[in-house]
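Re: weekly structure request thread

Next one in the queue (240 aa):
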Amino acid sequence: AFIARVEGKEPEVRSISTRAEEINYVAEIPTYDAKSTASKSYGGGGGGGGSSSGYKATTVSTTKYTTISFGNVISDCYVTLDGVDIVPEVDVKYEIEPGYHTVTITCPDNMGKVMQIYCIAKQNLHINPVLEELAPPEEEETEEEEEQEQEQEQEEEVQEDDVYYVTFSTDPQGAKVLINHAFTGEWTPTAIPLLAGIYYLELYKSGYNLLETYMWVGPEVLFGQEALDMAYSLGLDIPT
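Done, posted below.
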């Protein structure tokens, strides 16, 4: 755009523009000789009094743009520009700021294209790429699937070959130690190596009541309901 000021006339504003850009224009207009022409400066406002005379031209700076257009490849496809959904028409030019941009074209049958493009000022970039097969989108897990996965991980952790030595002692001593209804071959006091998990424990001594309870073996040894709660939380089968 430019502003042409002419002696004795109102300022006239003119502009030149294209779809792709706005450009600066400097009016090259000859200046009157102040000595041969009696005139006053058309400065307008403060500071305009007689300091200059004749024609003046003022330039106006504007931002330069480029354009982008798409080929037939976008037909029946979804297009995003820098993550924003757009609906471009084929071979229509659209203004865009120069620089790097990301274009994503997603078409039926899992075909498409992801492109990093660079737009140069005052030029049109035409996009009509060869489509490629896109990687299938990752399906979001449901809450039930997440819970099952967590339980499986916890169960795998429990099934690791971690051996814990559990000490058994009674008063009086000499009680048989049975685990899951099987005699271990040990009497109290004793220490038995066991893998992490849930067990059914029985301590038997003639003349005394049978002591039976569930036992959880791990970094911490638990008995009774606490042992069952631990096994339930990990989805483990409870021995009967």
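The two ends are 91 Å apart (CA to CA). The chain has two helices and 18 strands.
Next request, please.
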